[in-house]
Amino acid sequence: MKITIITLFPQVFETLLNFSILKRAQDKGLVEFEIVDLRIFGGGTHKTVDDRPYGGGAGMILKPDVLVSALKSVVDPELIPQKSKFKIKNLKLKIILTSASGIPFKQVKTRELSKLEHIIIICGHYEGVDQRFIDKYVSEEISIGDYVLTGGELPALVLADAVTRLVPGVLEKEEATLEESFEKNQLEYPHFTRPEEFEGEKVPEVLLSGNHLEIKKWRKEKALEKTRKLRPDLLERV
Length: 238
What we know:
Strand content: 15-25%
Binding site for S-adenosyl-L-methionine: 124, 144-149
CATH topology of the largest domain: Alpha/beta knot
Radius of gyration: 22 Å
Number of helices: 8
Function: Specifically methylates guanosine-37 in various tRNAs.
Subunit structure: Homodimer.
Keywords: Cytoplasm, Methyltransferase, S-adenosyl-L-methionine, Transferase, tRNA processing
GO molecular function: tRNA (guanine(37)-N1)-methyltransferase activity
């Protein structure tokens, strides 16, 4: 998989994409990260990438022509999904805009994206992005929560991290992802490790029993109990 991130602040990604599982994925040749500096496609002496909104209002808007130039520098224009024509020329490519107006980012979307060959993430910034660019070139707008950030760089990192760990071969034990929180619309069961007793609290006896059927049953019950307590909204989706 290739994940391209188009951003005004490429330095944000220099360290964060090169540690832990993300670095391991690159070292294994399973995932390639490409960071594109949007500023180099800006116009004029000052490499301008934004302008005032028509109709007035606060903030600046990212220019559609600048975004298209950046987009076409990383992918063959013939492969770019054309939403306005109601067809997708390449089902293995998606162009995502990080946006407070986007659909909420869920685990099911992470799994969907992990099956693609190329994801292009455009980091929104300032007041927003020209709607004409969104309508014609963006496959999906994605939000990581009901709040507003200064830019789309942090959401882009969240997407890259969440998707990368689900790419086959990245994790040593891929089966671990099948029992995580938000799989099957519930939270993961509680975990315990050594020491066996900590500040007067002991590890549940069932986990020491060696009875795998009973352990599996206990974990299922505790996962449901935890979900009811902390995220009952997840159960309402079932």
